[in-house]
Amino acid sequence: MPVLLLNASMQPLNVISRRRLVVLLTKERVAFFDDSDRVAVEWEVAHRRLGEGVIVVRLLRNVVVPRRLIRANRRNLLLRDEHTCQYCGLRAGPTELTIDHVIPVSRGGNPNSWENQVVACKRCNGRKANHLPDEVHLRLARPPRPVVQEYAHLLLLRHPEVRSAYEDLLRSVVPSHLRELSPSSSGAFLQPMG
Ligand SMILES: [Zn+2]
Q1: What's the 96 CA to ligand 1 centre distance in angstroms?
Q2: What is the per-residue pLDDT for 78?
Q3: Quick one: pLDDT at residue 45?
Q4: Beta-strand runs (E) in 37-189
Q5: Domains, the chain, ranges and CATH?
Q6: Is the dihedral of CA 154, 160, 161, 164 positive or negative?
Q7: pLDDT at residue 97, rounded to an integer
Q8: Which residues of the chain are modeled with pLDDT < 50?
Q9: How far is the CA of 134 from the centre of ligand 1 (A)?
Q10: What is the pLDDT at residue 174?
Q11: Residue spans of beta strands (DSSP E) within 17-151
C-alpha cells in the first residue's frame, strides 16, 4: 500500500512503495508526522511484513520540483472533471464519457486547451454537437480550469486514498487561516504550503 512522500514544504511529491520508504529511512532523509506510523513501519521492517495503511512522510530537506507541463489529454481531463458530465452531472465510466469542445473547433475553439475541453456524457455531447452551450440551453457546472499546481494535483486525483490521508493531515497540522483547501471538491486546487 502507498506511502505519500511530501516535500519539506508539505507539497505532495510522489506516491512511493513501502520498500522505497525503508530506503529513505535508512538514509535519514524523511520524517514521520505521526509517531505511531514510525512504530508501525519499524515493526513491519523487523518482521519483514509490509503493512496496508496509507502512511505520509515528509522530506527533511526541501527539493526543488521542476514545473511540468501537464497536457489536457483525455485521461487528465477525466481526472480533472472527476468522470462527471460537466453539463448534466452524470457520473459514469470512461467508456460512457466523451470530451466536448465548449467552443466547437469548427467555430474557432482551441482543440487542445484545458479551458475549452470538458467531460460530457454522450447524450449531452450529441445534443450540443456543433453549438455553443447557450444555443442548446446547456450550462457548464463550473468553468473549466487548467490543472495548476500540476503534478501534485493530478497525483492526488489519481490516488484518492492518499488524497484523503493528505487532507486529514493538512487539517491537523496547518492552521485554518493558511489553508486553501476544499475537501469535498477536486475543482478546488491544493495550494503549496510553506
Ligand atoms: Zn450529460
Answers
A1: 10
A2: 93
A3: 82
A4: 55-59, 97-101, 117-121
A5: 3-66+149-178 (no CATH), 74-136 (1.10.30.50)
A6: positive
A7: 97
A8: 181-194
A9: 15
A10: 63
A11: 30-32, 55-59, 97-101, 117-121
109 CA distance to ligand 1 middle (Å): 20
Task: Quote the CA–CA distance of 77 and 60 in Å, as a whole number.
Answer: 34
What separation in angstroms does the CA of 79 have from each of 47, 90, 169, 188, 194?
38, 15, 22, 13, 26
Of 125, 78, 70, 130, residue with least CA distance to 103 = 130
What local confidence, expressed as pLDDT, does residue 68 receive? 67
Compute, in degrees rounded to 10, the torsion defined by CA atoms 171, 4, 35, 40: 130
Question: Do you know the residue count of the chain?
Answer: 194
Instruction: Let me know: does 102 contact 76? Beta carbons within 8 Å.
Output: no
84 C-alpha to ligand 1 centroid (Å) = 8
Nearest to 152 by CA among 59, 13, 50, 19: 13
Residue with cell 511529491: 13
- Pick from 160, 158, 159, 184: nearest CA to 171: 184
